[in-house]
Amino acid sequence: MRENDLLEKEEIFSKVLRAGRRTYFFDVRATKADDYYITVTESKKFTEEDGSFHFKKHKIYLYKEDFAAFKDILDEMTSYVLNHKGEEVISERHQKDFKKEYFSERREDVEAEVKVAGSYTDIDFDDI
Known about the structure:
By secondary structure, the protein is of the alpha+beta class.
């Protein structure tokens, strides 16, 4: 089989969903028997302190015999989440200035702890 034929088989149908640091790839692929299946790949970008980056990828394979059950469970799970928590994202990590707010709040917490600790009576270990 020519390399070009192999590439055509692998790229039957694809869609990409970009979601922040994550990208989801949905691909229709063919088995050796020329039947179709789906792969879903999650790719997450991690940036190092030196500016370099790497990706972590996770992949699942969905075969036709599992489509209906998978779809039913996915529909049930997404409906459950939306019915119980709505569509609004409530995680503070999704806020633009999350780091600034988090570290600012954490600093305030530490300062409050220091003030409270300073109000206790000093104990000398020789007293114990």
